[in-house]
Design goal:
With 544 residues, this protein is of the alpha/beta class. It has 17 helices and 16 strands.
């Protein structure tokens, strides 16, 4: 960028130059003494001739690597201090709330014709960190992911730097082998003798994979002939299942009306008898049942469907049995709590997100299939000849990209692998067990404290509760009472976010008015953080 040339598109102005016509324009070469200013610039380029194509000088790189490296060196201390140390410091804010219109101004979002100076860019980095929610903070309890694993973080630095795409061995040899290793271990932990799988962008996409794969297994001709080749297909899931199941049906052309929703009990578990009735109903209507999606760890209540009983029904009717264990799959790592997923080994496919309970970092989601019959490959392959040539000089079975619905695909397995390498299976188990222990402590504190009411005994690590302010504690449970209680959680949430002290989610559920849902995942969370949460809710809500 600092090298300047005296060249022009028309070679007639330069007698020493030579030109030739190409299909896209004129290409010219010139003696370096006539076209380049200064001997040092010639040396930097390492070229004696400057090549001009359509008015563009091609000699030397256009990117100033040295300046870029300096920028990275200057940015890393900011990342270390602001996004790692401060963002996980309990004495710092979880978030620095700003309304959208004000934040737009603070961030200086406008994209301009000319680039900005490095110091200004570094300030943009500081601002982006400052005004973002610190999900690694010990008092971030808002979602089904939290905390910061430093080994996973380093793995993400590496993959972001190398920028690999995991589709062929020739461009991603290391990460293809790592993904294969991690998938095999996850298959083993589920309890399958063999299996297949792929890392994909989130549990929602994993559920979509399951629906598409199940449909292909029963009606493979749909891949070529489309929906006209299929009967009316019906799938089943519970009222507590993730909304991505409905989205999968819509996206794949099955239709949301063909997703039969099965009732749940008071704990949020699918009722098997209701499932049996729904399957029989679909058959009576002339439809073709093909898939059941059970849930291992529902989003709100943390419920686990009775997998063994559901598996019996699936086997009876010849249905594909998929388990969405995106949230609850982490419990498989614990010998003490894996019983919650009893029967998972009977599933045909499983969705499991290590970025949730195991803290592998967003995103890290695996779709796993029992048995390795090449179904993923057959269902999704397009055999692109420019990627998946069969006459390569190595074993092309390692070119796994054709079993994905994506082309470019991130190396999401590496961060899980490096974290697993660092702390071992025992370390992962310890994280799971500690999360359950913290949940038990919080549950007992809620029972003990005045003004707090548990919604139900947690089966998993979802703790659902109401905070009842003093003004409502002696009030009868009338419609007015529930209306007033419904407004409590949103007001407290607003106060805590504007203060930046803590973040916790809330929602209504069925007939229940708004309540808090507390999730404990991060090993950085202490007992004191849980005490602080309850104290803070009481302080912020006592005057309501």
């Amino acid at each position: 960028p600092n090298t300047r040339f005296k060249v022009h598109a028309e070679t007639s102005q330069h007698p020493a130059g030579r030109s030739k016509k190409t299909s896209t324009g004129t290409m010219s070469t010139f003696n370096s003494e006539e076209t380049v200013k200064g001997e040092t610039e010639v040396d930097q380029l390492g070229k004696k001739k400057a090549v001009l194509v359509d008015g563009v000088i091609l000699n030397g790189p256009i990117l100033n690597s040295k300046a870029g490296e300096r920028f990275v060196e200057e940015a890393f201390p900011i990342i270390m201090e602001e996004a790692i140390r401060k963002a996980t410091d309990v004495n710092e804010k979880v978030c620095e709330w700003q309304p959208p219109e004000k934040l737009k101004v603070l961030l200086d979002l406008e994209l301009r014709d000319r680039g900005e100076q490095h110091q200004r860019l570094l300030q943009h980095c500081r601002d982006a960190i400052r005004y973002s929610v610190k999900t690694g903070h010990p008092r971030f309890f808002n979602q089904l992911y939290a905390g910061m694993d430093h080994y996973s973080l380093v793995a993400r630095f590496i993959t972001e730097t190398l920028n690999p795409s995991v589709y062929t061995y020739e461009v991603s040899p290391v990460f293809i082998l790592i993904e294969e290793t991690v998938l095999k271990k996850m298959v083993e932990i589920i309890g399958w003798k063999e299996g297949d799988g792929i890392f994909c962008p989130g549990g929602s996409v994993s559920n979509m994979y399951a629906v598409n794969l199940a449909r292909y297994k029963y009606y493979p001709e749909i891949k070529e002939n489309g929906l006209s080749a299929a009967p009316r297909l019906v799938m089943f899931t519970s009222k507590e299942s993730h909304y991505s199941v409905q989205k999968a049906a819509a996206f794949l052309g099955i239709g949301t009306r063909n997703v039969y929703v099965v009732s749940t009990d008071e704990c949020g578990k699918m009722i098997p008898e209701e499932l049996e009735q729904q399957v029989q109903k679909a058959k009576t209507e002339g439809a073709v049942p093909f898939l059941v999606c059970a849930t291992a760890g529902t989003t709100v209540l943390g419920a686990f469907d009775p997998l063994d009983t559901i598996a019996d029904i699936c086997e009876k009717h010849g249905l594909w049995f998929h388990i969405d264990a995106s949230w609850g799959g982490g419990a498989l790592m614990s010998r003490k709590y894996r019983h919650l997923l009893k029967g998972i080994e009977r599933a045909n496919s499983v969705a499991w997100n290590p970025h949730k309970m195991l803290m592998a970092g967003l995103q890290c989601s695996a779709f796993l299939v029992r048995e390795n019959l090449g179904l993923l490959q057959k269902c999704h392959s397009a055999k692109a000849s420019y990627l998946f040539q069969q006459d390569k000089f190595y074993d092309v079975s390692y070119d796994v990209g054709d079993k994905s619905i994506q082309c470019s695909r991130r190396s999401d397995a590496f961060k899980f692998w490096l974290m697993w390498k660092a702390i071992g299976t025992c370390g992962l188990e310890e994280r799971v067990n500690r999360a359950f222990a913290m949940t038990r402590y919080l549950t007992e504190e809620i029972k003990r404290r005045e003004g707090f009411q548990l919604i139900l005994e947690p089966e998993f690590i979802n703790v659902c509760f109401w905070y009842i302010p003093p003004s409502l504690r002696k009030m009868e449970e009338s419609p007015i009472y529930w209306q007033k209680l419904h407004a409590v959680a949103p007001v407290i949430k607003e106060k805590m976010m504007k203060k930046g002290s803590v973040m916790i989610g809330y929602q209504p559920h069925k007939e229940k008015v708004n309540f808090f849902r507390q999730i404990v995942i991060s090993p950085q969370v202490s007992r004191e953080d849980l005490d602080f949460l309850l104290d803070e809710i009481d302080d912020l809500g006592s005057d309501l």
